[in-house]
């Protein structure tokens, strides 16, 4: 099945008349689905599961029917696509742990949002800055597609608006230059290093790396959230340094979330094997395992994780798993490049669910407000979170 991001890309391709018959069939067959969760269902607090499910499905169908009446042609506009994604995300959101708030409070999806002072705050996109060793900054969005040269030497190649690929050929100079690529709040970027390792940067993240690798170890330094698909070189281990920990791999895929404003650093292994050195101890991971480094207490725990949740940001989603409102809003703040201010007691306000990152920030806040545990007010690029 197409992801939401693939659906939008394919829609735009078909809308411009460049779709193949097979792609058109994919587009027409696309639909979002959700599963009704049986986990931790308490009928005393939540009501009868089948009745709640029926009521929520009816509400969603009514909302979708209103949108279709307003725009009966499926291929009428991009807003129509976002409406489909929005309401399917509502379904997923309500069907998760947070559903008892809906059941107890009799929440209804209303066109009158709890979010006021509506202004257009668009989601993030492909944005990054390249910092050369001498401090020169290059806005990667300003680079045209093609070779990126330094002193007449083609160091890298910009393949697409969101990707920079470093050349694997040996450079004529013996000096090794270190580059840094950083994404701003509201940015993301894809880099391919000189050894063939693929790197994806989430918003407000950075990676420092050599323009070409030399020596036994291939060492890089990161901050923020970064996903790696490491090119295998059995005699040249790949080393990632971040927030007091060091990760050593040969060839593997893993995600590191190491934001300075987060209390924990999570390293999640998707494929292969990694060895971490942190707090003077060594930890080995197998696929499906992660380490959680608590920077406050200088402690480390091993656990299992849900790959769909860890990689949600790459698939264009927010995924919350019993997260407090501050954690939720930090993710929203980074992606939408907004300031968040809290008013009132935010303790024990937890959220679970999946919400698309494609829409405007108001759509995400609307869904969070459905729980009736918090309300929001937007002033410019400032979001107030209130009881």
Automatic annotation (TrEMBL):
- Give UniProt keywords alphabetically: Membrane, Transmembrane, Transmembrane helix
Domain named FecR protein: residues: 180-274
A matching Pfam family: FecR
Q: Which domain of life is it from?
A: Bacteria
Annotated Protein FecR C-terminal domain residues:
318-385
- The transmembrane residues are 84-103
Record protein name field: Anti-sigma factor
Species: Sphingobacterium pedocola
Q: What is the lineage of its organism?
A: Bacteria, Pseudomonadati, Bacteroidota, Sphingobacteriia, Sphingobacteriales
């Amino acid at each position: 099945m197409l992801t939401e991001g693939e659906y939008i890309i394919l829609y735009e391709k078909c809308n411009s008349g460049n779709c193949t018959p097979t792609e058109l069939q994919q587009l027409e067959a696309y639909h979002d689905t959700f599963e009704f969760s049986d986990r931790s269902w308490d009928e005393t607090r939540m009501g009868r599961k089948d009745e709640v499910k029926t009521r929520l499905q009816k509400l969603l169908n009514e909302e979708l029917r209103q949108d279709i009446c307003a725009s009966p042609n499926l291929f009428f506009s991009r807003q129509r696509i976002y409406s489909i994604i929005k309401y399917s995300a509502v379904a997923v959101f309500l069907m998760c742990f947070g559903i008892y708030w809906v059941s107890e409070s009799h929440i209804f999806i209303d066109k009158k949002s709890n979010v006021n002072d509506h202004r257009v705050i668009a989601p993030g996109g492909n944005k990054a800055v390249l910092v050369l060793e001498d401090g020169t900054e290059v806005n990667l969005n300003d680079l045209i597609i093609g070779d990126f040269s330094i002193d007449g030497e083609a160091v890298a190649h910009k393949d697409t608006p969101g990707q920079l690929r470093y050349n694997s050929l040996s450079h004529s100079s013996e000096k090794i230059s270190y580059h840094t690529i950083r994404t701003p709040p509201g940015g993301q970027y894809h880099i391919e290093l000189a050894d063939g390792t693929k790197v994806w940067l989430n918003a407000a993240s950075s990676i420092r790396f050599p323009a070409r690798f030399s020596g036994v170890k291939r060492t890089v330094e990161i901050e923020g959230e970064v996903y790696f698909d490491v090119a295998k070189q059995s005699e040249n281990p790949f080393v990632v340094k971040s927030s007091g920990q060091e990760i050593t791999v040969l060839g593997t895929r893993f995600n590191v979330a190491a934001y300075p404003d987060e209390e924990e650093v999570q390293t999640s292994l998707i494929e292969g094997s990694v060895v971490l050195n942190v707090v003077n101890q060594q930890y080995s991971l197998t696929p499906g395992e992660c380490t959680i480094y608590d920077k406050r207490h200088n402690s480390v725990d091993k656990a299992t994780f849900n790959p769909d949740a860890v990689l949600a940001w790459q698939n264009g989603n927010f995924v919350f798993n019993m997260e407090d409102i501050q954690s939720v809003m930090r993710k929203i703040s980074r992606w939408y490049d907004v300031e968040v201010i809290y008013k009132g007691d935010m303790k024990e306000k937890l959220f679970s669910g999946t919400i698309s990152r494609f829409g405007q920030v108001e759509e995400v806040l609307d869904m969070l407000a459905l729980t009736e545990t918090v309300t929001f007010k937007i002033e410019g690029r400032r979001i107030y979170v209130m009881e």
